[in-house]
Specification:
By secondary structure, this protein is of the alpha/beta class. It has helices spanning 23-31, 37-50, 79-86, 106-109, 130-142, 159-170, 188-205, 220-230, 251-257, 266-281, 290-297, 303-310, 316-325; strands at 18-21, 54-59, 94-100, 120-125, 146-151, 176-181, 208-213, 234-237. It has two domains: 18-281, Aldolase class I (TIM Barrel); 290-325, no CATH class. It is built from 13 helices and eight strands. It has an eight-stranded parallel beta barrel, surrounded by six helices. The longest helix has 18 residues, at 188-205. The chain is globular and about 55 Å long.
Length: 327
């Protein structure tokens, strides 16, 4: 394959890279965002000490669409709750939240940047809701925020639609466009091709590209490193890979891999010892397992695998046949 101008090697020093911790947001999908205040404060401190660039506190979900009694506060990320943890956040690490198209009353719930502890709003959209995503992006930009956009389930989209989506988004005020492997179905060769596609359009408009990987086939870290080598600079990760179903690229793997001396693995290891191990012992479950492998192989949403796990089923063969029937 032809070498790109911005391509890196495994030993490259890449100061433009930004690490985004998504533990509370993606991990919150595992426990309905019921994290203790101590867990959140200690994660905030660990991320600062580890040199993480952004910490995502959760979703800006609408309280009119979701029952506040069924979810922890990080499903909604009220500014007062974030301030209770970060104060004025006089650190080098920035604060982010995610706003889902169609699930967020962004005009009301996202205040002006000057009145909020949040620095970055990450808009999540499917390819068929790009116009609504751009509306959110422009609103947040006018309010003073940095913005990124996650195009979800990209493995289900064709090249024509992806090309059109990238052109529309990169013409907007968004700062970074994310390559998202929602179903954990992509292989490094596919990530390489998609990263090149994203970067070609992003470079034309002066935008950055990010990557968000899922671990259905135990390739989240491999796919993230492949994206790094191609020139992607915003990297999502979660501590111990905590995230929906199979989870994500583990922070400790990514921080251990990056060559920039600002990143340190020890604070994350200490956090795992003190908070992640007890969380797992309490019964909170995530990580690679056969049902998630199967949905990843077949490029399907993991919801059926999540249900399989909840029912404590072990009939993997029958489950595979069920998935094939829906293929």
């Amino acid at each position: 394959m032809e070498k790109k101008a911005n391509e890196r090697t495994l030993m490259s020093y890449t100061p433009d890279i930004k690490v985004v911790d998504c533990t509370l947001r993606d991990g919150g999908l595992v426990n309905d965002f019921f994290f203790t205040d101590e867990f959140v404060r200690e994660l905030y401190k660990a991320n600062i000490d580890a040199g993480v660039d952004y910490m995502e506190f959760g979703y800006k979900a609408s309280k009119e669409m979701f029952d506040v009694n069924k979810f922890g506060k990080w499903k909604f990320c009220d500014d007062k709750d974030i301030r209770a943890v970060v104060g004025d956040n006089k650190t080098d690490m920035k604060i982010s939240v995610m706003a889902d198209v169609g699930r967020c009353d962004f005009r009301k719930d996202i205040l002006n940047r000057k009145d909020s502890p949040v620095d970055l709003v990450r808009v999540a959209t499917y390819i068929n809701t790009i116009p609504a995503a751009i509306e959110m992006i422009e609103d947040c930009t006018k309010k003073g925020y940095e913005t990124t956009v996650n195009i979800m389930a990209i493995s289900k989209s064709n090249d024509v639609d992806i090309d059109a989506a990238l052109e529309l988004l990169c013409k907007s005020s968004v700062g970074t466009v994310y390559l998202v492997d929602s179903y954990g179905s992509l292989y490094p060769e596919q990530v390489r091709r998609l990263a090149d596609k994203y970067l070609e359009v992003a470079d034309k408009y002066g935008k950055k590209v990010g990557v968000h990987a899922h671990n259905n086939q135990q390739l989240a870290f491999a796919n993230t490193t492949e994206a790094i080598i191609r020139g992607v600079s915003y990297l999502d990760a979660t501590v111990s890979g905590m995230g929906r179903g199979c989870g994500n690229c583990p922070s400790e793997l990514l921080l251990g891999f990056l060559k920039n001396p600002k990143y340190k693995i020890n604070p994350i290891l200490k956090f795992i010892e003190k908070h992640i191990i007890p969380l797992k012992k309490s019964g909170v479950v995530w990580g690679y397992d056969v049902p998630y492998l199967l949905t990843g192989l077949l490029n399907q949403h993991p919801k059926s695998a999540i249900q399989f796990m909840k029912e404590e089923r072990e009939d993997y063969h029958n489950f595979y046949l069920e998935l094939l029937d829906n293929f």
